[in-house]
Amino acid sequence: MAPALSEADFVKAQVDGMLEEGLREVDASENLILDNAAQTEVSPWLEMTRWPRYLRGYSFDEVAPLGSPADHATEPLLAKFAQSLDRIVEESHKSVCNDKVNVFDQARINSSIQRRRAWDRPLMIKLKKSTYRGYKLVWQRLICFAYRTIQPAQHVALSHQLTATQSTHLDRRTGLAERLLALKNEDKQGTEKRGKGRDIFRVDPENKIIRDA
C-alpha cells in the first residue's frame, strides 16, 4: 500500500499535474496553424498570400511532408518532375548565357514576371550556383506539394482544386513521366539480360567460346 501523502505534497502533485497539462495544451496549440494571429505575429507576405487561412486547423507536422523534396525510392514520378524542372532551368540559363535569347526577348520575359518597369531590364542571370539551387528547390517542392495534395488518399484535405486546364496539363505530364519511367525500366531489364547472356559464355586459352553449364 502506497504511503499517504502529506497535505503539502498532495497540493504540490496537483499543481504539477495542472502545469504539465497546461504545457501540453500550449505545445499543441503552437504546433497548430491558426488564422486568428495578430498582425504583429504574421508577416505581410503571409497576410497577402493567406497561407494561415489555407492551412488552418492542420499541424506543421501534417503539412510539412506535403512540400518535402521527392523521394527517389518511393516517389519516382515526382523525382522525374524535379529532374525535368532542373533540366529546363539549366538549358534556359545556357541559352541566355550563349546569347540564344537576345536582350529584347529577355526584357519581354522579365516584363511578364515583374510588371512594374521591368520592360527596360533584361533577365538577371548572374546569380550564384547556390542561389539557383535554392530557387529550383523551391519550385520542385511546390510541384511536389501541388501533386500530393490532389491525391485521393491524401488525408490533409486543403480547400483548393485544379482548373480543367491545370488538370489536363498535369495528366499529360504524368502520362509522359510514366512512359519515360517504363522505357527506362525496360532498358534496364534489357541491359541486365544482355549481361546475364554474356556471363554464361567464356573464352578458353585457344580463343574458343565455351558455354558454361
Structure description:
The protein has 213 residues and is mainly alpha-helical. Among the domains are: 42 residues, no CATH class; 82 residues. Helix content is 60%, strand content 3%. The chain is built from 8 helices and 2 strands, in the order ααααααααββ. A two-stranded antiparallel sheet has the order 1-2. β1 and β2 form a beta hairpin. α5 runs antiparallel to α7 and α5 crosses α8. The protein starts with 6 loop residues before the first helix and ends with a strand. The model has no long low-confidence stretch (mean pLDDT 76).
What's this entry about, in short?
The chain is an all-alpha fold.
**What is the CA-atom radius of gyration, in angstroms?**
29 Å
Low-confidence stretches: none
How do the strands line up in the largest sheet?
1-2
Outline = extended
Strand content: under 5%
- Record field, number of beta strands: 2
Q: How much helical structure, as a percent, in the residues? A: 55-70%
Count of helix runs: 8
Average of pLDDT:
76
Characteristic key phrases:
213 residues, mainly alpha, two-stranded antiparallel ribbon, 8 helices, extended
Question: Which helices and strands, and how do they pair?
Answer:
Layout: H1 7-30, H2 44-49, H3 51-54, H4 60-63, H5 76-97, H6 103-113, H7 129-149, H8 164-199, E1 201-203, E2 209-211
Antiparallel strand pairs: 1-2
Helix pairs in contact: 5-7, 5-8
